[in-house]
Amino acid sequence: MSEALDRESAVPLYVQLAEILRAKISSGEWKPGQKVTSENDLDRLYGVSRMTARQVIAQLVSEGLLFRVQGKGTFVQPAKIAALAPSGYRGIREQLEDRGYQTNTKVLEVGATIADMDVAAALDLIQGDPVMQVRRVRTVDDQPISYHCSFIPVRLAADLPTHDTGSRQLCVLLAQEYGLEMGRVFETLEVIAASDEQADVLAVRKDAPILLLQQRVQTPNGQPFELSKIAFRGDRIRLQFEYAI
Questions:
Q1: 0.90 exceeded by the pTM?
Q2: Which residues lie closer than 8 Å to 176 by C-beta, 6 or more apart?
Q3: Closest CA to 186 of 90, 84, 85, 83
Q4: CA atoms within 13 A on the CB side of 76
Q5: Rounded to whole angstroms, how far apart are CA atoms 6 and 30?
Q6: 159-198 b/e with 16+ CB inside 10 Å = b?
Q7: How far is 243 from 169, CA to CA, in rounded Å?
Q8: Is residue 167 a contact partner of residue 103, using CB atoms and an 8 Å limit?
Q9: Sign of CA dihedral 130, 180, 164, 149
Q10: Bigger pLDDT: 32 or 199?
Q11: CA atoms within 13 A on the CB side of 240
């Protein structure tokens, strides 16, 4: 692609400039984490107004290709990791490892707590009933990408803390150790503002946009046995969904 703007073209200059900068990112000329050309330098290099340069940078920020750091400048956003949403025994960790990423799962907590209203409703319990809570953080190349918080009724897995919930996939552990086979999974996905806890675990600022995937799992006979809330860093991972029609 030519880096010269065609001033005779019907395509607006800001659209042409945006395409040039996108090409620099996709080709690797501008590398992830690299500080990019300032608005003033874009003015000089391409002969556009500072307002036009600012418009282009703002557009690429909104597309997730660039990000700004107050007082430091604008940088290339690291490429997002694409993964299919968890399904059955094929979790995100397995997908990432198959593609050569170095993953690690750190267990933050495994122990009994009481079900709040949302957990109780999801697991057909009474608010205040005892549940096992498993909190874990998953990293890729030493960077946190997801925070997992799962709940299982205590009566179904009373000795869960004695098992390895770090290296073993939780759904596999529940099936093999407790006979809790997955029959149906109900999922919701939404964008939320990171809470203090989520921000601390995921190393993002409070109220940063994150993806929250909630999964309610039932046995083949319809008994709910697990509620998982998985918070993903939206700047580091993109979930893909695949369906057989």
A1: no
A2: none
A3: 85
A4: 19
A5: 23
A6: ebeebebeeebbbebbeeebebebeeeeeeeeeeebeeeb
A7: 23
A8: no
A9: negative
A10: 199
A11: 8
The pLDDT of residue 95 is: 61
Write down all domains in the chain, each with its CATH number in brackets: 13-76 (1.10.10.10), 81-240 (3.40.1410.10)
Asked if residue 84 has pLDDT above 70, the reply is no
Is residue 139 within 8 A of residue 123, CB to CB? The reply is no
3-state secondary structure at position 14: helix
Using CA atoms, how far apart are residues 136 and 108, in angstroms rounded to an integer?
Answer: 5
Token representation of residue 115: 């079900």
Report the pLDDT value the prediction gives residue 93, as an integer from 0 to 100: 62
Residues 6+ apart with CB under 8 A from 187: 85, 213, 214, 215, 216
Question: Helices (H), strands (E): how many in the chain?
Answer: 7, 10
